[in-house]
Amino acid sequence: MVGLQGAGKSTHVREHLAATHAVVSKDHWPRARRREARQQRVVAELLAAGRSVVVDNTNPSPAERAALVAAARTAGVPVRAVWVDTPPATCLARNDAREGRARVPLVGVHATRARLLPPSTAEGFDRVDVVRPGGTPPAG
Ligand SMILES: Nc1ncnc2c1ncn2[C@@H]1O[C@H](COP(=O)(O)OP(=O)(O)O)[C@@H](O)[C@H]1O
Ligand SMILES: [Mg+2]
């Protein structure tokens, strides 16, 4: 998954992927140290066990996605990016409406926005899907 905080990634995962994929997210371990390494290990273990996996984090930059693409390559499975391309203003409004730890600091959303580069097959993805609110993505 790729998308800002509040874009609707977890909702998309729940509605379209959770029935068929193991869901991994650093958000599941908010207090753990070395969450990145832990996530990478869990993904590798699930793939090695033959499971399909979806990684539900913001994953905004190619650098952050590279390890996941590599994990899929190592396991010999296809890898797809699903970019939930919700307008930042909508993400910010949804974030505002959240409670407690689910609400992230405004600066966090802006920082992710600054780092976000749309996923591309040039990174090694076999497929890139774009999810936009209220519309079917254009072909290609
Ligand atoms: N397609 C949608 N239309 C309207 N609201 C949505 C949609 N998808 C998600 N939401 C709402 O937006 C908020 C953030 O959604 P969530 O899936 O948790 O985003 P993310 O995982 O990207 O941070 C939630 O309150 C959710 O109910
Ligand atoms: Mg989420």
Automatic annotation (TrEMBL):
Sections of the chain in a coiled coil: none
Cross-referenced Pfam families: AAA_33 (PF13671)
Gene3D superfamilies named in the record: P-loop containing nucleotide triphosphate hydrolases
GO terms assigned for molecular function: ATP-dependent polydeoxyribonucleotide 5'-hydroxyl-kinase activity; double-stranded DNA binding; polynucleotide 3'-phosphatase activity
SUPFAM superfamilies in alphabetical order: P-loop containing nucleoside triphosphate hydrolases (SSF52540)
Source organism superkingdom: Bacteria
GO biological process: DNA repair
Protein name per UniProt: AAA domain-containing protein
Source species: Geodermatophilus saharensis
Species classification: Bacteria, Bacillati, Actinomycetota, Actinomycetes, Geodermatophilales
